[in-house]
Amino acid sequence: RFPPWPVVNMLTQSETKELFRRADAVCFDVDSTVIKEEGIDELAKFCGVGDAVTEMTRKAMGGSMTFKTALKERLSIIRCSREQVNKLITDHPPQLTPGIRELVERLHQRNIKVFLISGGFRCIVEHVATQLNIPLHHVYANRLKFYFNGEYAGFDESQPTAESGGKGKVISMLKEQHGFKTVVMIGDGATDLEACPPANAFVGFGGNVVRQQVKEKSSWYITSFEELLKELDKI
């Protein structure tokens, strides 16, 4: 039987660290990586349907259903209005993971490009990018659609981030557009791990939630951004 997971180039931990130190670009997942929570779960809680959606997020992150199916099903339960999304961001702004602000600042100082690639929602991810001084054109995420009266109208299914394998598509595109030789993906979930390749290296992040399959398949698995800062100090 074929394994359900894509085969990742198994680098050693020291090779992964070396690639991180000489990266042209670093791509971060957002939910449970750059921020402490899962944006879609927070939106569901805010709209009063938290439990049903949390269970489906768990299945999606565990790789047991396609990402687009999970996204569509969760959003059809939430059916948030534009007003609810705006109120969520105002009343419960996303909480940054400790150390991420310093890490992004350090990467920028070293002229390493930083991108946010998220299966979450652009309106929330842009808010996070602004806090971290990441340009908005470095944000790749899903777009919610609303009718003119603000009611939920679906999501933009043409975005690469709406698909399983979408993060890898974004990384391939970034390499092509910018000529990056070395791109590192950092994240907590199945969709992050499967972006390597085309990412040259993957760093698993368990600082907010540990997903066992990701931990087992990561040659370098960290629980604090402090570990990445220490690597940059070696340059």
TrEMBL record:
This is Phosphoserine phosphatase. Belongs to the HAD-like hydrolase superfamily. SerB family. It catalyses: O-phospho-L-serine + H2O = L-serine + phosphate; O-phospho-D-serine + H2O = D-serine + phosphate. Keywords: Amino-acid biosynthesis, Hydrolase, Magnesium, Metal-binding, Serine biosynthesis. The active site is at D29 (nucleophile), D31 (proton donor). GO terms for biological process: L-serine biosynthetic process. Pfam families: Hydrolase (PF00702). Pathway: Amino-acid biosynthesis; L-serine biosynthesis; L-serine from 3-phospho-D-glycerate: step 3/3. GO terms for cellular component: cytoplasm. Gene3D superfamilies: HAD superfamily/HAD-like, Phosphoserine phosphatase, domain 2. It comes from Periophthalmus magnuspinnatus. Catalyzes the last irreversible step in the biosynthesis of L-serine from carbohydrates, the dephosphorylation of O-phospho-L-serine to L-serine. L-serine can then be used in protein synthesis, to produce other amino acids, in nucleotide metabolism or in glutathione synthesis, or can be racemized to D-serine, a neuromodulator. May also act on O-phospho-D-serine. The keyword Cytoplasm does not apply. InterPro entries: HAD-like_SerB (IPR050582), HAD-like_sf (IPR036412), HAD_sf (IPR023214), PSP (IPR004469). Its cofactor is Mg(2+). Its EC number is 3.1.3.3. One of its GO terms (molecular function) is L-phosphoserine phosphatase activity.
